[in-house]
Amino acid sequence: MTQFAYDINDFNLAATELCRYGRTLYQRDWSPATSSNYSIRLNDHCCALTSSGKHKGELTADDILVVDLDGQPLPHPQHKVDARPSAETLLHTQLYRRDPAIGAVLHTHSATAVVLSQLWPEDVLTLQGWELQKAFAGETSHEHPVAIPLFANDQNIDRLATAVEQRMAQQGQGHAYLIRGHGVYTWGKNISECFRHLEALEHLLGYQLQLLQLQQPIGTNNK
């Protein structure tokens, strides 16, 4: 440990990974412009997190901050004066506080996730019968239902984080959740597993969106 309460080498590795995945997510059109935020746990007390308002296809190490699990920035010798944590920091730290096994969190804004979140009428989207569900850690069968909760968008992030925690405490942590008209959050033991979850989820949400379109083709009215 250093005077900065985390290992600088760990931070440098996390920053490199966050920048690398940022480019990948931007290229896949899952993180357009300055949308989205990503984080990697550094230890039991803090995480590396993308700063607010940064283009995710052009991230550099200067765009990565360190925050404690209360969402407060911690000092780093390379941080820019004007850098500030993502407005949605508490949605990351809620997960790190809840589960010490979570090592990374990705929040993205793909068209598929955002559109489906607006169309889905229920507060839970249940995935079942899809072979790709087994890409989620711990899932061994397509027959097991995977619940993806949906939350109303809320600019009060503290209130939204509380709602997410309450739901998880009552119904289980799961693998991901959607915010209506906003995007998706998913997590994993490390950034690689987290990305695998996100990639699988993007396809699974795409399947559900196509099913909705087939059941009620765009441009037609039910009589």
Give a verbal description of the structure.
Catalyzes the dehydration of methylthioribulose-1-phosphate (MTRu-1-P) into 2,3-diketo-5-methylthiopentyl-1-phosphate (DK-MTP-1-P). Belongs to the aldolase class II family. MtnB subfamily. Keywords: Amino-acid biosynthesis, Lyase, Metal-binding, Methionine biosynthesis, Zinc. With 223 residues, the protein is of the alpha+beta class. It has a single domain (8-215), classed as Class II aldolase/adducin N-terminal domain (L-fuculose-1-phosphate Aldolase, 3-Layer(aba) Sandwich). It is 35% helix and 19% strand. The protein contains 5 helices and 9 strands. The chain has helices at residues 8-27, 89-98, 111-119, 157-171, 191-215, and strands at 37-41, 46-50, 64-68, 73-74, 104-108, 124-127, 146-151, 176-179, 183-188. The chain has a 9-stranded mixed beta sheet with strand order 4-3-2-1-5-9-8-7-6, sandwiched between helices. Helix 3 packs across helix 5. The longest helix has 25 residues, at 191-215. The radius of gyration is 18 Å and the shape is globular.
